[in-house]
UniProtKB/TrEMBL annotation:
Organism: Niastella caeni
RNA polymerase sigma-70 region domain mapped to chain residues: 41-107
Residues annotated as domain RNA polymerase sigma factor 70 region 4 type: 143-194
Protein name: RNA polymerase sigma-70 factor
Keywords: Sigma factor, Transcription, Transcription regulation
A GO biological process held by the record: DNA-templated transcription initiation
InterPro entries assigned to the protein according to its UniProt record, in alphabetical order: RNA_pol_sigma-70-like (IPR039425), RNA_pol_sigma-70_dom (IPR014284), RNA_pol_sigma70_bacteroid (IPR014327), RNA_pol_sigma70_r2 (IPR007627), RNA_pol_sigma70_r4_t2 (IPR013249), RNA_pol_sigma_r2 (IPR013325), RNA_pol_sigma_r3/r4-like (IPR013324), WH-like_DNA-bd_sf (IPR036388)
C-alpha cells in the first residue's frame, strides 16, 4: 500500500469520500487495466481540475496541470490499493504542482530579486495554510451543489440556472419561456426546497443555497461550470 502523501491530504480524502469506486474498478486500476483508469478519471478529473482552477485562476493552466497529475497517477498505479490513497495523492500532487507553477510565474515576473530558499518555503506554507484549505472546502461544496442542481427536474433546473447562473429577472425568464412570472417564482421555490433536501447532509453547501444573494450564488455556480 502507498503511504499517505501527507497526513493533511489523507485526512481530507478520508473525510470527503461520498463517491465510491466499485471494487472491480479499483482492482482493475491497480492492475493497470484501461477500465480501471477510466473509472478513476471519470470520478476525480473534474474535481481536481476545479481545485487547481481555484489555486491558479486559469482554466487552461488547470487543465494542463490536472492532465499531468493523472498521467503521474497512472504511471504508478500499482502502488495504490485503496481509494483514499488515490484521492490523497491527487490532491497532494495538485497542490504541489500549483505551487511549482506559481513559483515559476513569480520568478518570471521578478526582475530585481530572486526567491531564496527561505522565502520559497514561507510562500509554500502560506499556500498550504490558506489557499489550499479554502480551495478544498470550496471544491467539495461546489461539486455537491452542482450535482444537486443537475439533479433537479428539467424545467426547474432550467429556471434555476437562468436565475442564478445567468442572473436574469423573473419577468425576463417568463417572457423567454412564455410562462408567467408567478410560474418562475414557483419553480424557484420548488428548486430551493429540493436543494435543501438533497444538501441536508452538507451543512456548508446548504448554507450557501439558503443564504446567498443572487450575485454571490451566480459567482459560485458559474465557477461550477468547470465540472461540466
Amino acid at each position: 500500500m502507498l503511504a499517505p502523501t501527507n497526513e493533511t491530504f489523507y485526512n481530507v480524502a478520508l473525510l470527503f469520500m461520498k463517491e465510491q469506486l466499485e471494487p472491480d474498478d479499483l482492482l482493475a486500476f491497480t492492475q493497470g487495466k484501461e477500465e480501471g483508469f477510466i473509472a478513476v478519471y471519470k470520478l476525480y478529473y473534474q474535481e481536481i481540475r476545479y481545485f487547481t482552477f481555484k489555486m491558479l485562476g486559469s482554466k487552461e493552466e488547470s487543465e494542463d496541470i490536472t492532465t499531468e497529475i493523472f498521467l503521474k497517477l497512472f504511471k504508478i498505479h500499482e502502488r495504490f490499493t485503496t481509494q483514499v490513497n488515490i484521492k490523497a495523492f491527487l490532491y497532494a500532487s495538485a497542490k504541489n504542482s500549483c505551487i511549482d507553477h506559481i513559483r515559476k510565474v513569480k520568478r518570471r515576473k521578478t526582475i530585481k530579486k530572486d526567491f531564496s530558499d527561505t522565502s520559497t518555503g514561507e510562500f509554500a506554507n502560506e499556500i498550504e495554510d490558506v489557499t489550499v484549505e479554502h480551495a478544498i472546502i470550496e471544491t467539495v461544496m461546489i461539486k455537491e451543489i452542482y450535482e444537486a442542481v443537475e439533479g433537479l427536474p428539467d424545467k426547474c433546473r432550467q429556471i434555476f440556472k437562468m436565475l442564478y447562473y445567468e442572473g436574469l429577472k423573473p419577468d425576463v425568464i417568463a417572457h423567454q419561456l412564455s410562462i408567467t412570472p408567478e410560474t418562475v417564482r414557483s419553480q424557484k421555490r420548488h428548486a430551493l426546497e429540493l436543494l435543501r433536501v438533497r444538501l441536508s447532509d452538507n451543512q456548508m453547501a446548504l448554507a450557501v443555497i439558503l443564504t446567498l444573494s443572487l450575485l454571490e450564488c451566480g459567482q459560485y455556480l458559474n465557477a461550477a461550470d468547470t465540472f461540466a
